Amino acid sequence: DTEVTQTPKHLVMGMTNKKSLKCEQHMGHRAMYWYKQKAKKPPELMFVYSYEKLSINESVPSRFSPECPNSSLLNLHLHALQPEDSALYLCASSQEGGNYYEQYFGPGTRLTVT
Amino acid sequence: EDQVTQSPEALRLQEGESSSLNCSYTVSGLRGLFWYRQDPGKGPEFLFTLYSAGEEKEKERLKATLTKKESFLHITAPKPEDSATYLCAVQATTPNQFYFGTGTSLTVIP
């Protein structure tokens, strides 16, 4: 079962809100990723967790806070976002994080910041 | 500076009209090159991984090839359902970075 699930599908939040995005995979993968994708642009890597430890943080603002409670779950906590943070947020997983291997993506969460 | 460039940006084909998409890369060392398909509003779908020059992979109407400087995604006799954005991505060895190209938007007209 090559499936990565993400919730919610859509999220609208104000600039003072705190919300979380959730991602889950049951493929036994040991690496999980967060990407941000703006319209008509490629995905931009934000964070990589490898064996439940944060291995890459691509200079993402602190208003985005990742969390990996276990090897199957990945959260992205959002606080005090700006309208320019509106985008499609994608989660992905792969067998390992040292080599990116084939990444399997979830359907994404469409985030709108008002 | 490491770069991944895809061309053309957009491509319109008649159903059955074969063509190729290009992904050019300049990285210090190639660990892997990946092809993905993305439908609007959805996450990318993994298609192929290529590791070394001369390698080829096939899946249905798609065939991916790799040289030392570029990769091609050949689409044979495309159908309207092949319409999507095709993304290539490169993993470099030094540093261990991962880059997506800007994508090619393919439209296949019945």
Explain what this protein looks like in three dimensions.
Chain A is 0% helix and 56% strand. With 114 residues, chain A is mainly beta. In chain A, strands 2, 4, 5, 6, 9, 10 and 11 form a seven-stranded mixed β-sheet that branches. Chain A has a four-stranded antiparallel β-sheet with strand order 1-3-8-7, with no helix packed on it. Chain A starts with a strand and ends with a strand. The mean pLDDT of chain A is 91. With 110 residues, chain B is an all-beta fold. Chain B is globular and about 45 Å long. Chain B has no helices and eleven strands. Chain B starts with a strand and ends with a strand. At the A-B interface, strand 9 and strand 10 of A face strand 4 and strand 5 of B.
Task: State the end-to-end distance of chain B.
Answer: 41 Å
Helix content class of chain B? under 10%
Helix-and-strand structural type of chain B: mainly beta
For the record, give the distance between the C-alpha atoms at the N and C termini of chain A, rounded to a whole number: 36 Å
What's the number of extended β-strand segments of chain A?
11
User: How much helicity do the residues of chain A have?
Assistant: under 10%
Shape, principal axes of CA atoms of chain A: globular
Tell me which oligomeric state these chains represent: heterodimer
Strand content of chain B: over 45%
Continuous helix count of chain B: 0
Q: How do you describe this structure in short?
A:
The complex is a heterodimer of chains A (114) and B (110). With 114 residues, chain A is mainly beta.
What attributes does this structure have?
heterodimer, A: mainly beta, seven-stranded mixed beta sheet, four-stranded antiparallel beta sheet, 11 strands, 56% strand, B: 110 residues, six-stranded mixed beta sheet, five-stranded antiparallel beta sheet, 0% helix
